[in-house]
What we know:
By secondary structure, the protein is of the alpha/beta class. The protein has helices at 15-18, 28-38, 56-66, 81-85, 90-107, 127-130, 136-156, 165-168, 187-205; strands spanning 6-7, 9-13, 42-43, 47-50, 74-77, 115-118, 160-162.
Amino acid sequence: MTGGSTFSYLALGDSYTIGEAVKQAESFPYQLQSQLKDKNIRIANPKIIAVTGWTTDELLAGIKQENLSGTYDFVTLLIGVNNQYRGYPLSTYRKEFSELLQKAIAFAGGDVRKVFVISIPDWGATPFGKNSGRDPQVIAAEIDRFNGANQEITAAAGVNYTNITPASRNAATDAALVASDGLHPSGKMYGQWTDALLTKVATVLK
């Protein structure tokens, strides 16, 4: 890394990007910033465009409203759980996720290596999921379909994909992976996501 430059980071998503129900420092964008700093890679505070409950169309609208100018040194994108939760069609998700991915690539200055897509975790494995009145196996199958779509679109674009979904299902047997609200990941689970991203991001920035 040259003369102490500071890299910029744009994080696009929903509650999983904000770190709903945990301290900001425990969210994965902030853990990633901290871990990269430990590798002597300085990252400015993440620019986060994410709201709890957002679907793909709401994220698209949120990005438009922010009216961002310029590009970022790297971008993360994690979106879709609320499309699944609300029963929105997979075909709509495919279309809107494709649009979001193209926007993420544009924000990375057109460099596909600097975009990192993260799979949708399985909320059905959480206490909230188990008590939701929905069948956790049905939730899991639907999440897998949404992830199948986003993974296919990501691969076709030549973008890096990080699959955190299998590990998210460990929440069914490890309460330490779930935040106090019984639904969202804990700082521990976000730490696992950070570990999965860290080397990939560091390699691109060095």
